[in-house]
Every structure is written in structure tokens, then in C-alpha cells.
Amino acid sequence: MTFFTQQNREHDGQPVATWIVDEARRLGVRGATLFSGSEGFGHDGRFHSDNFFDLEDKPVQVALALTRVECDKLMARFAETGLRVFYTKSEIEFGFTSDS
Fold it and tell me: Which superkingdom (predicted)?
């Protein structure tokens, strides 16, 4: 599952991307990765970038490999809070390449 937001978007006094990572950890998700983008545009057509004038508006992506149960729990938290964030979700296989 991947969430897309901007660095300057906040929820409950913290950046939305940080909130997602913190909620995932609280729910027992085993990992999340936060990516910072250099530029992009959203559903509204607005351009977002990390140039000198728009440093706070840079795009941010949070990627998580989730089980179906973990995904349901995380989406329930979004529903509880009313937080609206664009996401993509695909069925995947995940694991480790060896035991060590």
C-alpha cells in the first residue's frame, strides 16, 4: 500500500506522512518507508516541488507491505479520524530471500 501526500500537510499537529508511519507502528506493522519526492502534481493539477520557493510543499510517499488484516486495521484508523489521503493498493507477495 502506498500513500501520497505533501510535506506541509498535517494531521493532529504532525506531518501526515509521520502520522501514517506512527499509526502503522502502533498497529504492529513490521515496516514502513517514507520517500521524499523532488516534484509531482496532485489530483487537483497543482504542481508540488522541493525547489527553493516551495520547500514545504514537496511530495512525500509512504510505502508499506501489509497483510490484509494490517491493511484493514490501518484503513479503519483513517475512517475513525476522517483523514483523507490518496493511496494505491495492490495484492503482493512479500518475504525474505533467506533465513539469515
Answer: Bacteria
